[in-house]
């Protein structure tokens, strides 16, 4: 049964070969390979999740080498829901890509590779292996971003490549320090090894600083976010949705694992600066991300900066070293993936169907595309944190955790972030629903530049499903928490 | 007090929520759509009303939907306090539905499906607020109410409406944020947010600083929708919405959800005893008293009828808050009873303003001289309701005010007695001119309205021997200098403007009497019965509440609430 865990990584890697290999003979085979991969992945992640619900933590030793010497893959209450999220996001994005493209076989190879990398990040229990998967994720993402046809996509990809590589290198350097001091790379093993070296050891402190900074680059927290708006905004809509849902989420998850499994809460207690710095950085990120989002006229850029702000919430909760807040962080990771992925796809529907991409263009959109507009409104209000949608569940837990931890300033920032989020989504919704469209808008979109494609049923369905999922996840939030909580409890 | 598991509280919320779906689904056929509005209003009212006898006998209907967030269950409970609000909202929704149909069709408004769907959504959320069993569930519906009302505020789709909508969202979500923060504090200090009559026991023993902070956050949060000064200014701006919205939502459902939230906080979260011992009741009462007086004074200077009514609402809502903050049993009865009393009266007044708008496109009070000839029944209803507002006997406002007065004397805070009496006089001050000129003046022969037309303190135009120009311009006249001439000049000017404009834009204000004065119409022929019947029923409701308060169900519910909380049986 635990084989499913390794297959979650192996199947997408294997699948990534087929579109390129068979592409010469069958022009459109990529989508079918990817779809088959997605379905198998869903089956595997469901198996893993069922097993985790049944027995709790499950572990798999790669190649039969027992940990701590071999590489260990682990699934527990935190990673299992995220693995299922990967499968569902993949299928959702594929349903969308069927019509919207990109259609090249190389795209589907890269997508499968990205799935493998992200699944690996969620499954691994080895800090060096984590680096490998983060790099697979990163490389696949660079390529995917570059698959946008505009020159600025290439530029964004290059920028991401530079910044992302620096982040990964910092992480690797930190892992090197850890390995020198402890002689092990297995997370469970590191817990005790780090403690025995002593939390005040300069090498350990350095490794913490390097690893966390490296991961924060990947998470895209202000001021390390510079790669992210370009990467999200310039890549094809399908890619934006997929990477916004999963790539930063994977890095955020890695941050949770590294800080709590390797360094533990005792480290945070002893080195109070570590947690405080994270919280301070995150609080700034929440506010600045939202302010930058308000200033954007391009919808995708606005959503990208919104991610900077939202991941600030997650990182703040991680830095608080409080169980309730950490539960909120994981819930918000899942919730944000659903909401932001859905929002990007919705914006994609508007862009493909109607050729609108800026806040200006959104005037009167609700009349032209009522269903997608309603989905956008639901997702946006969910992101604002209107109950009962999932955005509220995460935020509530983070607020309660912050107050429990006595971090009043964080509680205030998180609570106020509701209004900041409202500030950038409110103006879009207002334009969509309550502003008459400019008469010449149609003429502009037809005379070249933006070509529009008929929006398929699949595209519309994915958008609606994600909106429904955001609400349903919120209603079932307490069930999600009962899955996550036992896995997090061990850290406290 | 027995708890009975029942799906009826949930069914009431869903009856209205399902209305959204059916209304949107039947958008192609307006008659079917309006049928669904009425159907869901009737079923919501029926379900709520079916619980009234049980609740009066001490039964509480409970729907438990399981855990929502850890430590908090999603439970709907129909207890006496919730029933007051639910019964009021669902009853007045039914009345307003008919009025809405007449109003929206009378003006041939756009986006009627969105309007009716959002209306059903708002009422559904209001019922959820009423039946919420703890602060979190209350917060959930409180926020949903904000979202559902937003499309109604912005309905006009003009820049002014969008601005009002923006302001509305910013204010109410800001309030929601404060309420959420207060909820989190209560949850952490006591481990529960469950309402219980007389307050959460653990809160009385909590750290007083934290308890006070949580109280301040909660009351400030709910106070935004209750339009306590200084966070009231969204309400007059929201009057840009269609009049039924102003009537039901901005005089009843939305603003009273704020008041209701404060009532829950004082009665069921803290309990009057804890509020008293924390010493937070008196500051709240002071804010309420300030709001009562200042809002009434501002109302005196509003020429737009709906804005004047809005400031009157701001003032009257604080009666309720004042009653709650005074904490004595009689004051609590008065405050809570003022929830339905004000609802019936203010709904009547807004309905009157709306029907005047539909029939004559007149919005400003200065254009309404002699309108009693054109709309006799409307203005009679207006008179009845405004007398009630002022607190004259035989109308609902008197009963609640009587209890409020007794309550203020009971607590020994005589200053509030003077506030209440002064507010009564101010009410007469801003309603009487409307009534007087409607019945006893004509457009050709009407007095100037110094408070509206001149800057505060008068104009120092001619005393210093200024240039002749300033005297020649009619607007510079002092009040006592031939005022009727002045009005005639002003009228002539505006007629001239209208003639040169000549735009057939019916939304734009070009109200006032037609040339040759108002035609005389008989009672009841002034508009369609879709609008006249709701006005009559709402006004009749205000009288019933005033004449036989003991048989009208609201006072019984209020007395039950107060008995549960304080132990004092009336």
Describe the structure in your own words.
Chain A: InterPro entries: CPA3_Na-H_Antiporter_D, NADH_UbQ_OxRdtase, ND/Mrp_TM. Chain A: It is found in: Cell membrane. Chain A: It is a multi-pass membrane protein. The complex is a heterodimer of chains A (492) and B (570). Chain A is an all-alpha fold and 492 residues long. Chain A has a domain of 211 residues. Chain A contains 20 helices and two strands. A two-stranded antiparallel ribbon of chain A has the order 1-2. The two termini of chain A are 29 Å apart. With 570 residues, chain B is mainly α. Chain B has a domain of 52 residues. Helices cover 71% and strands 4% of the residues of chain B. A three-stranded mixed sheet of chain B has the order 1-2-3. The two termini of chain B are 18 Å apart. About 8% of the residues of chain B have low confidence. The interface between A and B is medium-sized, with 32 and 31 residues.
